[in-house]
Design brief:
Strand content of chain A: 5-15%
Structural class of chain A: alpha/beta
Oligomer: homodimer
Shape of chain A: globular
Largest interface: A-B, 47 and 47 residues
Strand order of the largest sheet of chain A: 3-2-1-4-5-6-7
């Protein structure tokens, strides 16, 4: 893999993914990490001082009108080789739980960050993904060609929902799964695949301290799963270790 | 069934559903039809002149701050018996198709009408649904007790998506399915059930002229399916004739 771009990297799973990709025996030539606020991304900046293949870009993903300019920034890094992997990781999880406490602003804000942003960012970066697929025309479908990985959650699985509640978060992740499936069909002809990935229940700000997986454990498995993606997984919903999940 | 409320009734499936419920051998004592603009709802108004059990209420479902007042209007109609069935039918379908033509405004507007509105309207009407469930405590789970029916679409099925595209519409209906499942769990203890319903491919403005089902055919089947709902269907995704669909 020549290049990967991961959104939402100043902490949590995004930061963990960056570290795991940098630790690969053969790390990508370009690891592009985005964060909303460079000033708050101390760890990311110090990583970039140690790793010349790490590029940190600042973007507020709610500013969709900035995506075209952002794609140009990415292009100056990856150049003619295009972008191999777009990992839409950035997401939010509001606190609202039961129907009675659900707020319309939580529903719309969560949808904006967890669904609209990854769809529109993917749209903006498709030309670079296409370029990578063309530059690696003889490679098999997968991360050495071109992949979109959307950070989903088991909470977006309608089938697996046995606890109810969480309207804003669940609807956003089910919607993202829906978009992932459409991407996997629409872009197949261009050699670009798409998957939805559940990180497991991880000890992050979002997952809480009781979660069974550390950020390092989840991210190491997710990187392994992403590196092993192939045609068979196109349009699938996978958990961190590659196991399939129901919609 | 004592009372049913259906949203988006000035044309298409909403109007068809109203006609089908009014045609039942024993029609509901109160059929409440909502429309955005009373002045444009000629057919609905003329139906109301012929059927004293039909109440036409005007509400712009995007005005969520009006829902509490709206619930009071509904209460003056159904009184102490509460509301047996809430049928969230109103919806939009923007024209955008492939990723390259997807607009963020289409995604957010569609989510607002197809997901946020039915969730928030359900929240506002839950007290009346609870009242109906309590007033019919000895009745089996179903429409004689209290039901939420959310108008979904097979296009919201992630599993059945083999054509891709339609990001705004598909994500909204997958998200609505996700919310339906949570409602079916959250409200079960109150004797209120929830299902997602696919109307089939129908000759409406949305379905186009090549669709195999007429509005009358689809609505007659949907009414039959709603009247036959029971505990077994709680949290299910059904098509017009009651057949189960994959998420």
């Amino acid at each position: 893999m020549n290049s990967i771009l991961i959104t939402g990297c100043n902490r949590g799973l995004g930061l963990g993914l960056i570290k795991s990709f940098l630790k690969l025996p053969t790390p990508p030539r370009h690891v592009i990490a985005t964060c909303r606020n460079l000033q708050q991304a101390e760890e990311l900046k110090s990583l970039a001082e140690q790793h010349s293949n790490l590029h940190v870009l600042q973007i507020d993903l709610k500013a969709i009108d900035q995506y075209e300019n952002f794609a140009k920034e990415v292009e100056t890094i990856v150049q003619d080789n295009g972008l191999n992997v777009l990992f839409n990781n950035a997401g939010v999880s509001p606190k609202s739980t039961r129907l009675n406490f659900t707020k319309s602003e939580d529903l719309t804000d969560t949808f904006m960050t967890n669904v609209v942003a990854p769809i529109m960012l993917t749209k903006a970066l498709v030309p670079l993904l296409k370029q990578a697929a063309e530059a690696n025309a003889s490679a098999p479908i997968g991360p050495t060609k071109a992949c979109i990985v959307n950070m989903s959650s088991i909470l977006g699985s309608i089938e697996a929902n046995s606890d109810g509640g969480l309207y804003a978060y669940r609807t956003s992740k089910s919607a993202l799964n829906s978009a992932t499936k459409s991407m996997s069909i629409d872009l197949k002809g261009n050699g670009i695949m798409a998957v939805a990935l559940h990180p497991g229940w991880v000890r992050t700000d979002m997952g809480g301290s009781k979660a069974p997986l550390s950020v390092e454990q989840s991210c190491a498995k997710m990187v392994q799963t992403v590196m092993g993606l192939g045609e068979k997984q196109n349009g699938a919903f996978l958990q961190y270790d590659g196991k399939g999940l129901p919609w």
